[in-house]
Amino acid sequence: MVQVDPSEDLTKFIFNRSQFSPSNDRVKYSAFMPPPNRRLSVFRIAGLAENDVWEIGETIGERRTLPLSARADIKVSFVAETSLKIDADDIPPRHANIIDWPEDHSAVILKAKELARKAQLHLR
Amino acid sequence: MSVAVQCIGFDCPSFLTGASSVGFDVGSSNRIVNRTDEEICQLRERVSMTLGHPLDEALASLREIYRECSREDWDGYGAAAITYDAYKETEKVIKLMPTSIHMPEITAEPTGGIGLEWYRDKSQVFVISVYGKHRIAYAGIFGTNKIHGTEHLEETLPLVIIEHLRRLYS
Fold first, then answer.
1. Most CB within 10 Å of its CB: which of A40, A85, B88, B131?
2. What is the pTM of this model?
3. Which residue of A has its CA nearest to B113?
4. How far apart are CA B50 and CA B61, in angstroms?
5. Collapsed DSSP state (helix, strand, coil) of residue A36
6. Is the ipTM, as predicted for this complex, more than 0.90?
7. Torsion of CA B7, B9, B11, B13, to 10 degrees
8. A34-44: per-residue pLDDT in tens?
């Protein structure tokens, strides 16, 4: 597994409006819950300009015919603090998955909540 | 004539409280119940038009989320569709909330559930998750304390959920 520097930033692109709250500038836990395959898709954005970061999200949105609504940035170190791991597969480039989620659903919610409260919301 | 009765804290009735039919024959009681329900609905609609009723807003938000997320891959990451059972059960949970409790923010979960989130600040937050399977998963952050668990859902909200909400707003 590729080692990811704890100081790096990751971002989760958000395509559903119910997963963030613009009125109080926060990301909701559901944006950080893994899908049924239990691999939460994120991108490593270290060294990228703001426009380049959005460009990645727009490309994904176009492929999936979903409008990009926002993104949530989080430090790798915060992911490690919640005892989750990062699998940097680089497919597509800069892509990674947050893995090692617990089996129990309520424990998954708590981990997602912990990530969400450390994340920074950026609106498109 | 109507009498205003103040309810305090978490002892308030839920939104789902219906009219009693005790003391009448079946036909009369059904008419009274139906008439009362109609009047309550009309009153709620009038209040909603002027003030914006939190319950109606929450139910409208829930309907919108179900409309958007009841198909596979609604989030672009392979999310499971939100089921009709999850939608109806969440509606029931919202209506079971004591009237004194703030209405939660509603969100779609990628595993097919619907989340209700009460957020005071980053260190005071409580979430319940509903899947239409008569179970409620919950998680909360109360300062440095973190809790999570699962409860069976029957005809009333599990007491532990009410207690955690009380803790959040105490």
1. A40
2. 0.83
3. A30
4. 18
5. coil
6. yes
7. 60
8. 999 999 999 99
